Amino acid sequence: MTPIAKSGRPVTDLTLDAVRAGELTPEDVRIHPETLERQAQVAQDHGNPQLAANFRRAAELTDIPDAKVMAIYEALRPGRSSLAQLAAIADELDALGAPANAALVREAAATYADRGLAH
């Protein structure tokens, strides 16, 4: 199966000629969650469950706006957020259909609590 862009376009259609002709949109250069899931399966099949989990979390994030992802990234930096703020982020990720990312934020919050890294 040919990998596809977020737009649904086959990646084989993403050429320099298509760029020059103005035929591509931003969605054409974004990765599709199914492509990330296939990469996760390859990683899993080759004995790398951590990489597989990373690909699966990335797949969950493909439908979340970039600004929201960056805000979450900033909030996860040690000392940037309270435990309540991190819990709210995790709840929001669950509501957005990103349970693996929500679990990661909860894990980070627990670690920050243990190490005194939340404010």
Blueprint (SSEs and pairs):
Elements: H1 16-20, H2 33-45, H3 49-61, H4 66-75, H5 83-95, H6 99-115
How is this structure best described in words?
- The relative contact order is 0.10.
- The protein starts with 15 loop residues before the first helix and ends with a helix.
- The mean pLDDT is 93.
- It is elongated.
- The protein is 60% helix and 0% strand.
- By secondary structure, the chain is mainly α.
- Helix 2 packs antiparallel against helix 3 (49-61) and helix 5 runs antiparallel to helix 6.
- The longest helix is centred in the C-terminal third of the chain and has 17 residues, at 99-115.
- The chain is built from six helices and no strands.
- The chain has helices at 16-20, 33-45, 49-61, 66-75, 83-95, 99-115.
User: How many angstroms does the end-to-end distance come to?
Assistant: 47 Å
The percent range for strand residues is under 5%
Task: Please report the total strand number as a whole number.
Answer: 0
Q: Indicate the percent of residues in helices.
A: 55-70%
Task: Provide a quick synopsis of the model.
The protein is an all-alpha fold and about 120 residues long. The protein is built from 6 helices and no strands.
